[in-house]
Amino acid sequence: MDSIIGKPIDRKDGPLKVTGKAMYAAEWNIPNLAYGITIQSTITKGHINNIDTSAAEKLKGVLGVMTYKNAMQLHTLSGSDPSSGKFAEKDLLPFQSERIFYNGQHIAVVIAETFEVAEHAASLIKVTYNEEKPVFDINQPEAKIYQPQQGLGGTQVQVKRGDAEQGMSNASTKIEQTYNTPVYHHNPMEPHATSAVWNGDTLTVYDATQSVFGNKNAISTMLGIAPDKVRLISPFIGGGFGSKGFMWANSILAPMAAKFINRPVKIVLERTGQMFTCAGRRSFTIQKINLGTDNGGKLTSVKHETTSETSFVDEFVEPAGVATKMIYATPNLDITQNIVRLNKGTPCPTRAPGEAVGTYAFEVAMDELAEKLNIDPVQLRLINYAEKNPDDGHRFSSKNLKECYEKGAQSIGWSNRNIKPGSTKEGNFLVGYGMATATYPANRSKATVRLKLYQEGNAVAACCTQDIGTGTYTVMAQVMSDALGLPIDKVEFKLGDTIYPQGPNSGGSQTMATTGPAVRAAALTVKSKVIKLAVADKKSPLYNQTEDAISVDEGKLFVTSDNLKGETYSQILTRAKMPLVETEITTNVSTRETQKSESNPTTKQGGEQGGQGQQSGGQQGGSKDESKDNPFVKQDQDLDRSNVAFHSFGAQFVKVLVDPLTCMIKVDKVVSIMDVGQILNEKTAKSQIMGGAIFGIGMALMEGSVYDENTGRIVTRDLADYLVPVHADMPTFDVQFTNVKDEFISPVGARGAGEIGITGITAAIANAIYNATGKRVRDLPITPDKLIV
Amino acid sequence: MNIKQNPSGLQANGFTLPLSLSINGKQYDLNIEPRVSLLDALREYIGLTGTKKGCNQGACGACTVLVDGERINSCMTLAVQYQGKEITTVEGLAEDGNLSALQQAFIEHDGFQCGYCTPGQLCSATAMIEEFKNGMPSAVSPDVASEEFEFSEKEIKERMSGNLCRCGAYVGIVEAIQEAFSNKETTVAHETFYL
Hints:
Chain A is an alpha+beta fold.
């Protein structure tokens, strides 16, 4: 049997996506659909004095204008976990008061028969304000900086180990530098969109979200209706990168507007302005780093102090020091996080929140340290290699980072790097090489999967999770195909609908690592049921065989030692007169450090929690949860993970070319060697890593949002002013995997790959630019003007 | 197909125009306001939602369609401009249910992740290959007066840079275009380009 695990098969949803048939949130053919356009505040702080909607309401085709004056009352949602429902701005439920907390805050929805009339009507609305003096810049004297208690999901953001001051004074070589990263906007190609349809007291929402289950919960709670009255559908989402992880106002405004005019309503955010004010962003960071080493380059102390921003209506921390606490061995450590409240919208997770910007600053500091020590940057990292997790002393589930450094150095041609910066030319261009370490936690949580094997010999599994472009449809089908022994075209994985049992949100690179083991356990359970049928049936050629003597391939069950003795799933089910065999399985394992101690799941707990899963999927009259005493669930959940740390690692190597006259920078080659466990699909996994690296190229060279110094209004408010990488910016990529199965994370052995690709890459580019030019730019993005001066 | 007309109240005011559009070889009779963009006509009135709205200001290329074989940003144009023209959208690239060579190559080379920019990339690339075959130079063509250009990776990247992909599927897209093109010819004669 040639396993399909790891095979670079084409995406199952490929044909739908290349023919325009994949349905995104704004595209459902809904009868009698009306169009909602939102209007935003033009002041940065204060109160609405009045909204005059009369001219708009007189326009033919206008169905209503919803503001704080007439909008329904909403209920507060206190949760902070996006998997169970997290509204991005907990203290700013839309249209509940006249208060303005930031420029670009939603203040009205104009609803009309057509998009054109709605836009016209929006232009007729007159708003007057009572303006107050805002605080939108950290340098204003009114800006208050404080230390947050924790980050998202209870992450420790203030971490001390040993005595950092003492360690620093013992050091023989020291570095102290400050690095700045600007505000970044996710800009998924699909703007946030929601269509809402009421049918009596039940609500159907078509939403663009990375948390289908979470948004359903959030919407029902905020509206004050029972969760089973809301169905949320989101089979395709046009990119998220974190911006669709928390729920934003559009997801609740559409149901409110639909109730308001008693007709289905769709609201799509405009790219211009709205996607830059009402859909989250990555906070700026100011990162001060101190490194101290002994003569041999061994770290004696590490200090990493980050300041980031949040809003007045919620607290989101960009924890840049989160990777610093575990990336290298050091006896003394001081991670400090500061945060400032500003009159801006609330930031939210952006691809590797914390790690992306944190590894930039820290890995550039390591490069500066290597130069000062006159040690090769790769060697410096090997000197400080952490065999165990320095944060808690636990073993890593699987860490093969040395192999990554080795392969990366070889693939980029590291031996060509001249340690003297600004001294090597290739044609007219200065050449530079840089490297950095990549790392991201290997998260896993709880998922419930329902699986049905049909008499026709095909299988369908379903879980309320997402495919945000990451390949969930495809890789979950591969896990099914492998565990059931069915051809890939005979299996289908369904997602993106709350009629399915609860699965994880797509955040923290956990979708595959979480859903995969549940899919596997469900598939093995169904296979086992069919085998039990066969071995008990005198008419079966498998009669009286033991279960473990039987293998399955291409839908045929046979005696492993005699493959002529066997029959197909179809034959067994047909003879048994069973149209299908089904199961519902929950696997509940947490690999997060903050949660491991709280929930140490046993089989019993798994069974109970599986019961909730059944309830949540009850709309379809789901099958009974069969997790309790299930051998495949037990095998997974009973594994002792209490002293294991779960992280992925990688090495990023970059070659850049810099034009010495114009200082134009070209990333010429990127080598990413990733240690992310078992690869399920080489093709989609490589795409994930390249996608992350391309985000990193944007961070390094061009991206960054600018705010007006006088008003706090965003200046770079569209894709003409906010630059993202295009085809012409692309380097050559060489992505490789260690492909070592992680026996601790799950029996599937795969860790996530969605976010690690963005970590380290920005530093590797910055380090390569320094190697090429001898100029160390510590404020991203590294634009030519900064190299010319 | 379910064609949405403007509501009668608007028609009574005389704000709408009868309009006939030929899309993917099929005729669509509409009665819409002259301010409706071609993109919104496709997505909101005709129900051809394969063409995407990414920015509505000509900056991202997600709305790219073909008009008489040439690529345009449909968000930047009005539907009323295109009566009598042949419009091709992503829904019209496959023939008789068979994917075009380019569509197939996009799947094989993983030229997409979320898929939202994909229709624009496909339409853009389809027309770009024709532009190249017709001898139209680009900003990176070494000699605009040349008789022949090499269909190089650099040329493809330059000519496709109006189509943004935030997932970062650029490598697969360029590989797919190269493969689809190489099934035809690698260099083409400078035939019809005139300044």
